[in-house]
Amino acid sequence: PHKPPTLQPAMSWQEDDPSPATAPLRPPRPLRPPRQLGSGLPAAVAAALWRGDQLGAPVSTVWSSGFAALDAQLPGGGWPGHGLTEILTPHSGTLEWRLLGPVLRQVCAAGQPVVVVGPPLPPHLPGLRLEGLDERQLVWVQADTPAERLWSAEQLIKAQACGALLVWLPQARPEQIRRLQVLAAGFDAPVFVCRPARALGESSAAPLRVRAAVGPDWALHIHMAKRKGPPLETPLHLSAVPGALAPFLTPRLRLPSRWTHHPETEHVVVRPSAQPDEHRHSAAH
């Protein structure tokens, strides 16, 4: 019978050869420097890329919020176009104007109309005038049902018929927000969707979500719920005195010690200062 061929190893170690364990190691190859994100790409593509630990670079027009501290935390340094911005508040119809008043004032000054769709309260023109908003540039669309508000917002975005759009959608579903986001991607002006604070627990396709609450000393507490960049651990405190009250506030009313903030109720409670003991003693007699 034929003997099967014997397989020989490709290499064999002799007794005088160094073993693999004692063989000298080759010097490691020098490591190449890490490639920068976006290097070697067209400028338009590189501008659209961002790292998760950094704020997103502006890829569209942005409008200053009027608050330096807020602009420093917004991607691109202001309210963005080509996308939705959700404003979440515990009480709809009041804080939105205080937060968005400066940017709406810029839009009106540029001669562009500001369209508000379905606000929970009728716009108070004298108060808005004190905020610097020209009522001739303000368009109020009275839409009562969710379907009317969604339809109006979609038509305004498609037609690009305004310089800024505010729409109140307290009962919007995630798929409806996603549809508005797709339409707003082709819209140059800022689009603000106002929703209740409880909607923060729902998913949303909006790339920017900001929660606003009332704070002491006529301030606004701003929490970045979602943005293109790292999370913001500490809320922002913005001074936003209503224009109608600014001329009547005395320095005593602006003292921080007179205000107590209750975040669980989202209210500000005014407490009188304690009286000296001798005053209380004389009052008892």
Structure description:
This protein has an eight-stranded mixed beta sheet, sandwiched between helices. Helix content is 22%, strand content 20%. A hairpin with a 3-residue loop joins strand 8 (208-215) and strand 9. It is α/β, with parallel strands linked by helices and 285 residues long. The chain has one domain: 3-Layer(aba) Sandwich (Rossmann fold), CATH 3.40.50. The protein has helices at 43-48, 68-71, 95-109, 125-130, 146-159, 174-184, 277-284; strands spanning 62-63, 79-80, 84-89, 114-117, 138-141, 164-168, 191-196, 208-215, 219-226, 236-239, 259-262, 267-270. Residues 257-285 have low confidence and may be disordered. The protein has seven helices and twelve strands. The chain starts with 42 loop residues before the first helix and ends with a helix.
What topology emerges from the helices and strands here?
Blueprint lengths: L42 H6 L13 E2 L4 H4 L7 E2 L3 E6 L5 H15 L4 E4 L7 H6 L7 E4 L4 H14 L4 E5 L5 H11 L6 E6 L11 E8 L3 E8 L9 E4 L19 E4 L4 E4 L6 H8 L1
Parallel strand pairs: 3-7, 3-8, 4-5, 4-6, 6-7
Antiparallel strand pairs: 1-2, 8-9, 9-10, 11-12
Helix pairs in contact: 5-6
